[in-house]
Amino acid sequence: MKSNIKGDRPDTLPRVVIVGGGFAGIEAARALARSPVQVTVIDRTNHHLFQPLLYQVAAATLSPSDIASPIRQILRSQKNATVAMAEVTGVDPERQLVFMGDRTMPYDYLVLATGAQQTYFGKDEWAAIAPGLKSVLDAVQIRDRVLRSFEQAELQGDAQQCSDILTFVLVGAGPTGVELAGTIAEMARLTLKSEFRRIDPACIRVILVQAGPRILPAFSEHLSAEAQKALESLGVEVRLNCRVEDIDEGGVTVAGERIPCRNVFWTAGVQASPAGKWLNAETDRAGRVTVKPDLSVPQYPNVFVVGDTAHMESDGKPVPGLAQAAMQSGRYAGQVIDARVCGKPALPPFRYVDLGSMATIGRKFAVMQVGNIQWSGLPAKLAWLVVHIAVLNQLENQLSVLLQWTWTYLTRERGSRIITVPVGSSLTSQALPQPISDASGVA
Amino acid sequence: MKSNIKGDRPDTLPRVVIVGGGFAGIEAARALARSPVQVTVIDRTNHHLFQPLLYQVAAATLSPSDIASPIRQILRSQKNATVAMAEVTGVDPERQLVFMGDRTMPYDYLVLATGAQQTYFGKDEWAAIAPGLKSVLDAVQIRDRVLRSFEQAELQGDAQQCSDILTFVLVGAGPTGVELAGTIAEMARLTLKSEFRRIDPACIRVILVQAGPRILPAFSEHLSAEAQKALESLGVEVRLNCRVEDIDEGGVTVAGERIPCRNVFWTAGVQASPAGKWLNAETDRAGRVTVKPDLSVPQYPNVFVVGDTAHMESDGKPVPGLAQAAMQSGRYAGQVIDARVCGKPALPPFRYVDLGSMATIGRKFAVMQVGNIQWSGLPAKLAWLVVHIAVLNQLENQLSVLLQWTWTYLTRERGSRIITVPVGSSLTSQALPQPISDASGVA
């Protein structure tokens, strides 16, 4: 069965449709590589994105293509898989159809791995001012804004204006917010300082705003404190127990204080993609579909929801929205389908295995927590480097990222400091429609 | 004088303003590195672009950052140079002012190196349908369109529609058109064939349309013929002595024949940037400013026009619009200014030294002409590789390009096959405003 060649795949094989080519979707497809099924992966982009490194694109260290690989290329040798670049607009679970605008695709098994997008907790008008970081386009837009700010400040005679332009406020101190804050601060201090003749370094402020009592709340208190110290040593101002009350073109209001600034980036919360609405299924507060222990939807045993779109439990505890959880749940759903199709015994309930967490701050520091092991500083950074290179999808990307990191470390230069849109073009970063913030999935 | 540090540069030094950070502008700035002057380079992008490899970004082999370097980074160690990212909107040569919107910048010497842009010979309405290839944004948009076409064709059931989508018409058979045709044909045949399960390879057509009697007219007839054979062996249809009569959303009319197609790319002609209008100076048919033998403008001895914006002569013959001519003329203008400022004897008239020409077709073939030497095939390709790596601006870019080329050669994969804009976004490639096609200069 696995030697089916293109064009003559028997139409009688069960059709598995996977919506979303992120971590969960790709693993689901791979788990079905040897199954007697026809797999179709649908995504509205053509690439699988390695989201944990997306902040490095925003910070001009890496190019988009370093961390994105065409889904077709990843699944090229899997002969039972086809890929469709299309936007899924709905699902009819009764008639077993996926809608893509006016096209439909029938399925026998459906895996919804459509990811999550930024949420502004009801303040959707903030999205245009304070972009999130979910897609390649988001990252390129943030990069353009950061680099353009330095260019504008260099031309600016007025000290107050200059300070407004070079104040960067990051809302949300999870790994993405922390890593982005660290790398913007480092870029400002190491890379750009020698090249801008007029900017007063004292103008540059990077402020990280966190609603809760500590940064990186998923880590231990000890590591949170270490990470905060590392951020502060790079010049980042950390504001804990602070809520953002308002954002407009001129600045941010945080805990009653007005901070004039032109750059606000938002990593404070995620909302699941609308898969729950498509299915009319029960969801939690974050819009995630509550799934059964086998990750299927209660009413529809042939529909699975995985990754950030699913509210999954493991040993009675909710599974966190991490890449490793997405991969494990996608793989599990693929295995469940394989078992059913092949008549194998049913699998035990899904169980999430925590492989540990890491976050990095600047060139030399990281925190790492694996079971009872807690590392911080250079050893954790080395582990971070090895792990991230190892899990990148293609050898070419691994080599390219290794080259860029080595280069950046040695020279303090950034390899990808390109402002895509020229001055005077009607297409400025701000003019790009917002938000297009669901890269790994299909909204 | 050259040890001036930032902030305390004496305002009494002559001010040299260079408009455009392309090959000519950068060389002009570098030639002034040791002069007692204040140099300002103004460009509407933040990067210097290695335009000869831009087609490789369009063909998804290289990333934009592989061939673009921040102008600031290039001039970082030149202490008498500052860089401004701004759009020059005019010049007042009497009052010696450069206008950037409502800002002005005074100069003592002015170098206009604003490059050229695509021209449609009066048919400006074709620009939106048939983009040119001049800037990073152009290249990314062409890449998006090519890759998106394959994705659309894969979903398309109708054979005629599929064929329309996968017919690529390139207008103009200079080096850019030839290289782009070769690389699109090769990408279609080598890279993508194994990944698209439904596309019939017979649907894919690449058509190169040339108004004149042969391709690469700047080369010898022998090399033109060799290059044409190489293109045809990759499956490119070459149409000589053909004029494009019409272009619309549905296709192209070439010499009376209607070719239905969705992708037309235009490399057929260039028009100088509006520097001639700013100066109210005499220009040739292509809008290039006629300059004196020292590259200054007749009425204004302190204003120089160089590179693609200038109509220059050397030994009584017009100088071609090539990167090497831009670099040589920029360097010369810098040297003339240096001589005047330092009271050195006047330089002999500008003389263009032809270092030879090269063009490459696919992975294994190139043509090369240096004086009486004419090479084609693999030896020329190896020479092409060495020269292009050698002249890239930064070691990091050299290493990265070398890695990408080696990878593409060995695996036939493309390193940068990312469609930036997702399906269903209101921001499709076609919706981007056209043309923004003057990357090296300032329009």
TrEMBL record, chains A, B:
Signal peptide: none annotated. The keyword Oxidoreductase applies. It catalyses: a quinone + NADH + H(+) = a quinol + NAD(+). It holds the Pfam family Pyr_redox_2. GO terms for molecular function: NADH dehydrogenase (quinone) (non-electrogenic) activity. InterPro entries: FAD/NAD-bd_sf (IPR036188), FAD/NAD-binding_dom (IPR023753), NDH-2 (IPR045024). The keyword Hydrolase does not apply. Residues 15-330 form the FAD/NAD(P)-binding domain. Its EC number is 1.6.5.9. It is an enzyme of class 1 (oxidoreductase). Keywords: FAD, Flavoprotein, NAD, Oxidoreductase. Coiled coil: none annotated. Belongs to the NADH dehydrogenase family. This is NADH:ubiquinone reductase (non-electrogenic).
